[in-house]
Amino acid sequence: MIVNPINIKHVVINGHDLTIEELVAVARFGATVEVSDEAVEAMKESRALVEKILEENRVAYGISTGFGEFSKVSIGRDKSGTLQENLILSHCVACGEPYSEEIVRAMMLLRANALCGGHSGIRPEIVLALVEMINRRVHPVVPQKGSLGASGDLAPLAHMALVLLGRGEAYYNGERIDGGEAMEKAGIQTFSLQAKEGLALINGTQAMTAVGTLAYYDTLRAARLSDIIASMSMEALTGLKNAFDARVQGVRPHPGQQLVASNIRMLIDGSEIIDASQNLRVQDAYAIRCIPQVHGAIRDALEHIKGKIDIEMNSVTDNPLLFLDDESVISGGNFHGEPMALAFDYLGIAASEIANISERRLERLVNPALSNGLPAFLTPNGGLNSGYMICQYSAASMVSENKVLAHPASVDSIPSSANQEDHVSMGTTAARKARQIVENTLSTLGFELMAAVQGIDLRGGNVSPVHKAVYDIVRDKIKFFDKDREIRIDIANMEKLIRSGVIENTVSDMLEQFC
Hints:
By secondary structure, the chain is mainly alpha-helical. The protein is built from 20 helices and 9 strands.
């Protein structure tokens, strides 16, 4: 069952069962957040262990020692708070444009959820304050560039943590102001950090996971849209049904392939145009005939990526970790972003393939040599008018850009911290690239949908009931392109429509089995 995040209004976190839909609900649609009582108790117990370690003068990385190469330097209890605040002040080195509000909200939610696991030694009051920043819409200014993805997302998370200290900058009520001023206006307490708390706030994968999870969600939406839009292109191109026969998929039973073929069969059911076209040729070009195989492979990729995100969202990723059963303080590597770096590189490749095949269908729609009888560039008066000629140019440009962006970030590593941190993930770069790719992909799908609807008008005849509903949504925003006009307005309207959720929600309401 598909849960629409816009319907989720409140999320309770405990460190164990946060879902992608809940993250989107909080980040994008403003759902409020609450920390469970069990999580508060777990954090209290973890904090008590840190205090005991300090009282007994035990040697423990990041609690009574410095960090990275400075782990050999012993730090006295009287300076442990200064050590943690210095960590934040020295690590806020990210550069570039700030992350969007929704990414920062996702980042704060993920960090709070990881801390709720009770293995990080932070006071629960700080986590509760982080949650209140989400609820009262205090959004730290977090520049996008500067994370190696191990030891986690140190630089961006340091910018997030600054505001909890009453420092840095934040957006509050849409205004970019001093972090301390934003917290004061919102009525949220700021803190002086104590032992282990700086590490707890910034040692983790929450920047890459925030960016990548939202990119995943939008790629899943693009994949669902691509089935709808491709099936409408089939109407305009008089596509054949035989390649979508369940028997064909049954002898190569990849789950995604079977799902997509089923979607297409439902979407074209009842189309008089399709039904009347089945004897026109014996097979279609790959961009139509291989929709189940290409779109299906993307669905299988997304299912794999979802599994990785589900695990990471509910994992403890800082260092060292505290275990209450035997009071162990273990220095490990859960901060390393490699699991997500590989997943988000894969995500970028999957998203780019949606755009690749979409642009090829767009080319068939506008090219009279390939469109099975449609006028050149989908204009009834070619020559004087260019019609949709340059739409394909724009789509081709974005598809080409995607091919550059899809080169994996995770194959690179540059050692840091005097070679103590000698292999890093570059996972945040992978996530950021995937987000750029899916934005290009959604725009490319918008061009294909515009062309498909125009082609249906020029073809004439009755489309399937589901396609008629989508057609009406598009035509309400974008009128028939009978002669050249200021097409940028149509494109701006389509950019909004394709991202609004209206199209896939309409189809889901009409077809319960569509997914």
